[in-house]
């Protein structure tokens, strides 16, 4: 089976790309799939700390590309899941240390031996982002429900489409259901209608994320974590499982009303 | 309860404001039309219309409007007088 190669990206920084990559990768590996996560945010590596693997790094993405090590030498195995590996970003190099062609070649090689290759892209529309998307067949655009994040997400979607990457799905992160109900936060439907790309999942806002990042253990490992469950659903949808989009807002008054009256 | 009533009568929720503002911003971002180009379009419209009617140049407004699945160019012009034999020209 050929692997799915995905890039996780956003226009604005700090919307939860790395958290998304860590949790989706962990969720897919928990299902038994062979997963490699690539931190393509060269110069600002973070996936290693979110995964709790920072103290195992010897080689990185740039070392592979420059031929200083073999791919397997730079792949760090997850602490809990033996089918999950990450390739860390270089921390001291500039963003142009890897070319789109090199990235594409690496993704192809990894796709031959894995089920999922997930690339953590830098935010924004600079060259680093273009390198990160070069090897991907599918893109997941992460946004929060804020005007600045949504506007920047729209720019990124435009760029992805311009580079003929048309399989694009939206993840809405940090949705605050209470605020949506009060009319103080845009709803999932609002955001989807503005960006007009298909939604693949909604992740609720939660303080759990800070704790998980502090510990370096993704939330899909925590039983009963709503954030973890949201990411597990997204992973299942990526995997082609038919999980209906019953996003967080569906627990609201209106939908209960609709359910009762069959609306 | 009081809060619900207050919310009900509040002019507009911030989510609605955000949605409306973003709609305009995204439309302009996607069209990527500079103010200079807008000005050129406006002047061309004035030129074309002036062949057939006398218009109030100061009142012309050109703007975009976003519908459900379209973007429209809306132009509002005050007409002072239509030239009688414009069609024959």
Automatic annotation (TrEMBL), chain A:
Keyword check for Oxidoreductase: no
Single GO molecular function: ATP hydrolysis activity
Top-level taxonomic group: Bacteria
BP GO annotations: division septum assembly; negative regulation of cell division
The entry's keywords: ATP-binding, Cell cycle, Cell division, Nucleotide-binding, Septation
Gene Ontology CC entries for this record: cytoplasmic side of plasma membrane; cytosol
InterPro entries linked to this entry: CobQ/CobB/MinD/ParA_Nub-bd_dom, MinD, MinD_FleN, P-loop_NTPase, ParA/MinD_ATPase
Family annotation (CDD domains): MinD
Domain called CobQ/CobB/MinD/ParA nucleotide binding: residue spans: 6-218
Segments passing through the bilayer: none
Keyword Cell division carried by entry: yes
Positions that bind ATP: 12-19
Pfam families, per database record: CbiA (PF01656)
Family assignment from sequence similarity: Belongs to the ParA family. MinD subfamily.
Free-text function comment from the UniProt entry: ATPase required for the correct placement of the division site. Cell division inhibitors MinC and MinD act in concert to form an inhibitor capable of blocking formation of the polar Z ring septums. Rapidly oscillates between the poles of the cell to destabilize FtsZ filaments that have formed before they mature into polar Z rings.
Quaternary data: Interacts with MinC and FtsZ.
Protein's UniProt name: Septum site-determining protein MinD
Protein source organism: Desulfosoma caldarium
Automatic annotation (TrEMBL), chain B:
A Pfam short name: MinE
Keywords of this entry: Cell cycle, Cell division
UniProt keyword annotation of Oxidoreductase present: no
GO BP terms: cell division; regulation of division septum assembly
InterPro entries given in the database record: MinE, MinE_sf
Highest taxon, organism lineage: Bacteria
Record's keyword annotation contains Cell division: yes
Entry's family note: Belongs to the MinE family.
Function text: Prevents the cell division inhibition by proteins MinC and MinD at internal division sites while permitting inhibition at polar sites. This ensures cell division at the proper site by restricting the formation of a division septum at the midpoint of the long axis of the cell.
Name this polypeptide is given: Cell division topological specificity factor
């Amino acid at each position: 089976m050929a692997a799915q190669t995905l890039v996780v990206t956003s226009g604005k920084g700090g919307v939860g790309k790395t958290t998304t990559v860590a949790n989706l990768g962990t969720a897919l590996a928990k299902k038994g799939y062979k997963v490699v996560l690539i931190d393509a945010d060269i110069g600002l590596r973070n996936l290693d700390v979110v995964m709790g693997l920072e103290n195992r790094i010897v080689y990185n993405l740039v070392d592979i590309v420059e031929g200083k090590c073999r791919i397997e030498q730079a792949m760090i195995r997850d602490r809990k899941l033996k089918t999950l590996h990450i390739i860390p970003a270089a921390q001291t190099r500039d963003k142009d240390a890897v070319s789109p062609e090199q990235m594409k070649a690496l993704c192809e090689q990894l796709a031959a031996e894995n089920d999922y290759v997930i690339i953590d892209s830098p935010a924004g529309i600079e060259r680093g982002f273009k390198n990160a998307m070069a090897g991907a067949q599918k893109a997941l655009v992460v946004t929060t429900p804020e005007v600045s994040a949504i506007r920047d997400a729209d720019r990124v979607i435009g760029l992805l489409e311009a580079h003929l990457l048309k399989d694009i799905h939206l993840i809405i992160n940090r949705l605050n259901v209470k605020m949506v109900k009060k009319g103080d936060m845009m709803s999932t439907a609002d955001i989807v209608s503005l960006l007009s790309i298909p939604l693949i999942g909604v992740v609720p806002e939660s303080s759990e994320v800070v704790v998980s990042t502090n510990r370096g253990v993704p939330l899909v490992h925590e039983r009963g974590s709503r954030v973890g469950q949201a990411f597990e659903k997204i992973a299942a949808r990526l995997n082609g499982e038919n999980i209906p989009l019953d996003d967080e807002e569906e627990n609201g008054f209106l939908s209960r009303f609709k359910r009762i009256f069959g609306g | 309860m009081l809060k619900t009533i207050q919310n009900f009568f509040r002019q507009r929720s911030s989510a609605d404001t955000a949605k409306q503002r973003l709609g305009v911003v995204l439309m302009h971002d996607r069209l990527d039309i500079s103010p200079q180009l807008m000005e050129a379009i406006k002047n061309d419209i004035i030129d074309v219309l002036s062949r057939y009617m006398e218009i109030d140049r100061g009142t012309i407004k050109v703007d975009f409007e976003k519908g459900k699945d379209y973007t429209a160019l809306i132009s509002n012009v005050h007409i002072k007088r239509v030239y009688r034999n414009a069609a024959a020209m």
